[in-house]
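Our platform keeps sequence and structure together, in a single record for each protein. Such a record has a labelled line for the sequence and another for the backbone structure tokens. Nothing more is needed to write down the fold, since each code stands for a local backbone conformation. For reference, a complete record is included directly beneath this paragraph:
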Amino acid sequence: MNRKISPHEEQAIDAMLAELHGRPAPDLSQQILRQLRETPSQGDLCAESLTSSGSLRVEVGATRRRAVAEKPTALVSWRNAPWKIATAIAAALLLMVWMGRDSTSVDTSLTAQDSNRTHSLGGEPGRTPLLHELAHNNTAATTPVTAPDSNVTSKSVERKPLKGIPLAMKSSSEDPLDDIEQLKNEQPKIQAPVIKVPSIAPENRKAVTLVAKEIDTNLHDYWSSLGIQAAQEADVAEIAERISSVLGTEVPEQAIESATAFQSFLAKPEIARGAAQKFMNVVTDGGFQKLDPESQTSLLSELASCFGSEQPFDETLASWISGDGPNSLHWYSANAIDGIHPLARRFATLTMNVDVRCIKCHDSVIESRGTQSEYWAFAGLLERSVNRKNKKVLSVATDRASDDLVFFETLDGRQKVVEPGVPAGWIAGSGDTAAMDLKQWSQRVLGSRELARGVVNSMWRMIHGRPLRGSVVDLSTPPHTESLGSLERRLVDDLIDSRFNLARTLALIVSTSTTRRSVPVALRADQIAMSSQADIDHGNMLVGAFAAAAPQHASLPVSKRVQFANRSVGVSLDAIQKETLLLAQTLDTTVSKTKSNSPGDAVTARADITIEQFPGKAVAPPVQWLTLIDELDEKVNHLAYLVPMQKVPKPVNEVVEKMVAEKNSEPLILHRVWWMIHP
């Protein structure tokens, strides 16, 4: 072993080290050979241990093999040299890896102090650069180990996370991605706290005009996917008159030229207040009008700031739900004016975009979202948290008011029990847990996508009379395609990015191509009596797909509609159409003689007053899911539940019995029932 290594052997060692580290390695041949000469033979095992002083002792035993040499004279003295060199290299690499794992405090640039510290660790000057590099590239150790140093204590050494590619300490799978996924699964899963979704900074948001163009593109794609041609654009004066009727205030033609113009128009305090009042009437189903004037004024003042300025609506609504806001009791009273169950239905629609009308009695049959137990858990939470008396909410319990369970009855008569709370699947940020009180629920409302969907669809209903994407059980739900879903997502994303700016969303909806469509000729008041049924059906189809404007109808009470239907049973279709036209003329005369008290009343008086055409024939039920129900009485009951009504009014049942006696078809009976009772 006293013979010097040949140049070829030295070159081979350098090549192996360069391949291992990806860069030219330092010359460690002398250190390796010296370590090899000083290491005694210990059999066929290779072990390493730490001495009491902390230095590394490597014990190597080489398996003696017969080697073939180029020169026979060198066979005796060099037959074991290659194997010893290989084992020496392995021992040196093992030493360097161990030293690299423990030297996490070494800086990226080697200084004189670093060199001294490396010498104190037992290394040699020639080994310092390699050890220094490994200290920053090795990530196999999860907990850094401080190397023994008389000058540096464990507390003084800053433990920095190691960087680089970790060493494979165990057998790896064939696919490296499987190892990565396994490492992810081994990490402890901690449920993230519920936080508000961050909104985009105002300077980074898309311009409202650009978003309006994208929405129009989605609308035209939607009509193309249905294979329909949208109705022609209406005159600007007609559009302004229609929007004025919706908002109850005079809207100039300049305000509807673009989304930017309408958003500036909403900045006026009186206009923002009018929009807030219309929105409040829509989401409370008219319950807002039944509040006392003082409560109305206070509630409107706070909501108007969400339309006239950039006050985030989600924060305002969360304060109402939690009971902390000054108008919280007014908000609850407006929604619970007719009971806890209507309160649950309205809250679920606006805040989570969930239709609970059917799941009150049974699990959702058509849609997968919603079960009877989820409904009763939600209704039970509201019933225990809201103290209501004489159609007025007296107090709201922010924290959990009671731990009592909720019992409800299934369709087959069984009694089931559920814990009160907002179901986890109804709102984002819940994980696998339900919101157990109003405070938790209000926190999850902040910035939620479900709230944004509820607001977008409620505001679309405010302008166009029905949601953009309603429940499949609705009779007026538009045909769904991916383009319609993209349109809804675009509005929802923009509402979240703008921090729930209601004025911006309302301006986008008003500026859509749907708002600019005209009423189909076959559905106009002066043409409907002379139009064929095919033209009327085509016009209704365009209206149903938001490709045409719906004609304005006079709002008749149920009693007047039932009276008209009772007279029309058994008469000819021509007589029904003539009587419908006659009734419309009578209403027009009555309204014209009525003194207008507001700009909205004046607009209504100038418009052509018509009533919705009484169905004369039908070949299919109003909605196909009614075919799942066997009895006609149950089908009529389910139509009433959609209004929603607790039960069918007695005069309506009398008209149904009369139509059955006249042997009218079942689809026609159902269409006429809906004509009588729908809101």
User: Anything to note?
Assistant: The beta strands are 47-50, 56-59, 386-389, 392-396, 406-409, 415-418. The longest strand covers residues 392-396. The chain is about 50% helix and 5% strand.
